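thread: overnight batch results

M.L. [08:02]
morning all. the overnight job finished for the chain we discussed friday. pasting input first so we're all looking at the same thing
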Amino acid sequence: MASVCDRADLARTDAHEVVLDCLEAGIAAARPERVLADALSLSGDQLRIAGEVYDLHAYEDVLVLGGGKAAGQVAAALEERIGDAVDGGVVVTDDPVGTERVEVVEGSHPVPDDTAADGARRIRERAAAAGDRTLVFAVITGGGSALLPAPAGDLSLADVRDTTAALLESGAEIAEINAVRKHLSAIKGGRLAAAAAPATVVTLAFSDVVGDDLGVIASGPTAPDPTTYDDALAVLDRYDLAVPPEVRTHLRAGAAGDRPESPGPDADFGHVREHLLADAWTAIDAARAVAEGAGYETAVLSSRIRGEAREQGLAHAAVAEEIAATGNPVEPPAVVLSGGETTVTVRGDGAGGPNQEFALRAALELPEGAVLGAVDTDGRDGGTDAAGALVDGQTIADTEAAAAARDALADNDAEPFLADRGALVRTGRTGTNVNDLRVLLVE
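M.L. [08:03]
and the structure it wrote out:
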């Protein structure tokens, strides 16, 4: 299982121990080597993926192309499962791993860099060169939007990078952010699949988005795009974003019909097969099994929690209060689980991430006997090296600490506050990414 650093210090009580066990089990269940071991089976040349069979002997070339935080791990696991059948490929990730046949390119996240742009360019070139007897495994995981930039038209990487930074700080939802990113890229919004035609494209997806929309995961390189240039411009206007003038010029040209639109729902994607291999439920189900094994009643609040992190933190604290006071929605001792992706509208200049803001806001209201763990399953919450935080009713024990906590929230500075109280959860890079996992225990 994925291990939490400094676990001995964090596991102050049996309840803290159970929450940590749940978090570790959830992350471990979503690791690519475990997921692919369950989802793929090979008999001779017959590869079965979630009930669909592919005859590897029917193809001259088998390539692995794609990107995202878990892309390197998926490529390695795929090599492990089908071995010599893989002829090569390229994936871009911020978590590189050793492979024998697939080239793993290390790029940066959440803001793209030159290495990622070059890797994305080479992925598109490999796709465009594929023929009708090529099988392309398209590895699409969370983080691919940043790791597969491929600026379109006359846009520079700096244009894409500045726009990405502005979007991430705006509080926009991921679907809105990706509507823009799709229309600044030569690979997103179904363009990778279009470039690969007539090759057979088999998408292997790990979802980090609420609702598991394959058009949103990594900005949908192999899925039809229901959004338009007009939608992208509307997002910039809705959040009054200052972006490079070249970006608005590019989008306006597309809206005027001077640039081709991304392949929409009516485009021919008959050569594409899609397999969603892991998502928030993968982690939630594993965490729930651990909690039940420890003797707790369980309930899943939702796998689709979204909105401002601090508001959702307060809502989870209210759930803990209700359980303690009335036994609703589940009698204590209980564990309530949730997944999804919260956002932070950045107004200060501190350090932290959505899960840390979530946990800090909840800690201000948690009742006695409640313990809450909130992590990003990729091991990186926001721009920090912490996965999230583990808090309880004593994390903020007096009015002075409460005032300091509110000041930290106002400055988006949750990380140092939580670090001072020994509440940060660190896992290192986990090799997967199925969004946030939260475990709320009430004794």
